[in-house]
Amino acid sequence: MATCKYCKETIKSGARKCPRCGSNDPVGTSIAVIMAMGIGAIFIMAFIIDLATKVINWIADHIWQIIGYPTLMAGLISLYFLYQYHSTNKSKYSKIDIKNGLNNRIALTSVLVISGFFMSFVFGSREEISDNYNTAHGGQIYVTVVDSSNARTNPTTKGSVVVETISPGAVLIGEWVQGSDIPTERWFKTNRNRTAVYVWEGNLTEGR
C-alpha cells in the first residue's frame, strides 16, 4: 500500500489516480527509481564520451586516408569518363575541340589522382614509416608494465578518458612526453589498436 502525496489517503501501490482527491500520479516517482535513472544516465554519458573520444582519435590518426581515398577514387572515376569522352566525341568534333576539352579534363584528373595518391599513401603513411624507421634504428623506447596501468587519452588524469587497463608484464613501444598539467611528470606515449594513448611513468620500467 502507499499514501497519496496530496490528501494522504491510503491507496494501492502503483495507482495512477487517487480515488479520494482524484489527483494523477498520487504516489510520485520513488527516490530509488530517480537514483537508478540518474546512475543509468551517467553510465550512458560515459559510454558516449568514451566512444566519441575513440572516434575522434581514429579520425585524427587517419585523416589523410579519409581525405585521400575518396579523392583518388574521384580521380580514377574521372579517368574513366575521360576515356569515354574521347571515345564518344572523336568522330563528332574537330581535333582542336577535342584537344581543348581533353586538356581541361586531363588537368582535373591529374590533380585528383596525384593528390589522392599522396594523401593516401605518402602523408597517410608517414607515422607508420616513421615508426618503422625508429624501430629499425633504435629510436623507439621499450618499457615494461610493472603494475596495472590505465592507458588514457591525454597525458594527465584530469579530464582524460581511460581507454583500457594494461596488465603487468606487457611491453610497450613509444616515447616519453611531458604531462599536460604537470610538466615534471612523464607519461609514456604509445599506440594501442592504432590509437595514441598515454601511461603514467610510475607503473613502468624501461627495458624489456
Structure description:
It is flat, with a radius of gyration of 31 Å. α2 (63-89) runs antiparallel to α3. Helices cover 47% and strands 20% of the residues. Mean pLDDT is 77; it is low at 129-138. It has 208 residues and is of the alpha+beta class.
Structure described in brief:
The protein has helices at residues 31-61, 63-89, 95-123, 126-136, and strands at residues 2-3, 10-11, 141-145, 149-152, 162-166, 171-178, 186-192, 195-200, 204-206.
Give a count of the beta strands, DSSP E runs of length 2 or more: 9
Overall residue-averaged pLDDT value: 77
Strand residue content: 15-25%
Rounded Rg = 31 Å
CATH architecture of the largest domain: Roll
Task: Summarize the main sheet.
Answer: 5 strands, antiparallel
Widest β-sheet, arrangement of strands: 8-7-6-3-9
What spatial form do the alpha-carbon principal axes imply?
flat
Helix content range: 40-55%
CATH topology of the largest domain: SH3 type barrels
Name the descriptors.
208 residues, alpha+beta, SH3 type barrels, 5-stranded antiparallel sheet, two-stranded antiparallel sheet, 9 strands, flat
